[in-house]
Amino acid sequence: MSCLALRLLILTITRTSEVRLASFKEIEGDVWHIPASTTKASQQRRVPLCSEAQSIITIAQETGTKNHIFTLLTSNPLSDAAVSQLMIRKKLPYGLHGFRATSRTCVEEQTDMPFEVKEAALGHKVDKGVIAAYQRSGRMEKRRELHTLCWGMLLVSYSP
Q: What is the C-alpha to C-alpha distance for residues 90 and 158, in angstroms, rounded to an integer?
């Protein structure tokens, strides 16, 4: 389960807590609706799911519980350390947050997407004041494009 969770984390560029506490009810088709209770900014957000991410969730359904996608044998969600321990066992010389940083660098270097799209893909709040009042799209279609262009490359380069 830790390996599947890590793969989803890489593909979606989400935070560890968002992945390990994810539930099947948060998934609607090719969109993951992350509740505010598990996000760093305490605001609900939507994450586009590529076909590989959807496949990971389907595989996890075979062993997950109805409450969480990634569970331990006890049916509890993965612990904080589960994915980190996987990386230690595999002797990977980098940390989990490094995937987010690498992804951001990749989209900066490999795309001409606007700053707001790149930051929104990481779940960072970029719109403030009047702009935030009028900008309500979440930039989903452009974020899907980023996932397709760059973030799949990370998964190809890392395969536990």
A: 11
